[in-house]
Amino acid sequence: xxxxxxxxxxxxxxxxxxxxxxxxxxxxxxxxxxxxxxxxxxxxxxxxxxxxxxxxxxxxxxxxxxxxxxxxxxxxxxxxxxxxxxxxxxxxxxxxxxxxxxxxxxxxxxxxxxxxxxxxxxxxxxxxxxxxxxxxxxxxxxxxxxxxxxxxxxxxxxxxxxxxxxxxxxxxxxxxxxxxxxxxxxxxxxxxxxxxxxxxxxxxxxxxxxxxxxxxx
Length: 217
Fold this sequence. Notes:
CATH topology of the largest domain: Rossmann fold
CATH superfamily of the largest domain: Flavodoxin domain
Distance between the termini: 9 Å
Largest sheet: 6 strands, parallel
Strand content: 5-15%
CATH architecture of the largest domain: 3-Layer(aba) Sandwich
Number of strands: 6
Number of domains: 2
Order of helices and strands: HEHEHEHEHEEHH
Radius of gyration: 22 Å
Structural class: alpha/beta
CATH class of the largest domain: Alpha Beta
Number of helices: 7
């Protein structure tokens, strides 16, 4: 009887935290000016176990900022898919995708959409990160949800193009964000729902415990 009660207490009061192995995390990013590349590099400085894939356009964008913006606007208007030099074809070895990009006219760059459409993201979790001038995440999260089929898309993590140049400040913020991903910490709404579920679970188990205790007396 004591053994049964001991095992029951273990089941009742042990909580399980789902952590993520960094080797199961993949960064997929596109960077034109180098700001998003800085972001990706800071992540790998924090954890060098995380793999990286950089989206490279088959035809390079112009060096001139205004010319690039004009092309970006044309790509959005025509809903085109800029060709990728060496597109990634599968992410089967990974559970979590850190998707990095600059905000272009409040949206995800079309070349990133092209890469997303080439992948089977069923069951994957995507944590977006981006650099921006003033629009934070813009409409990019909804863009990702539209094109990342069957993936769980989390809240975006934006850093301004000026802030990303301050390495110490940026890397501290990024580390805090990354730690939560690796430690399996949820968003506030998910945490609240989880707390409610845990409360119900504990109450049910307490009733079971009382019932089993009476039977074993």
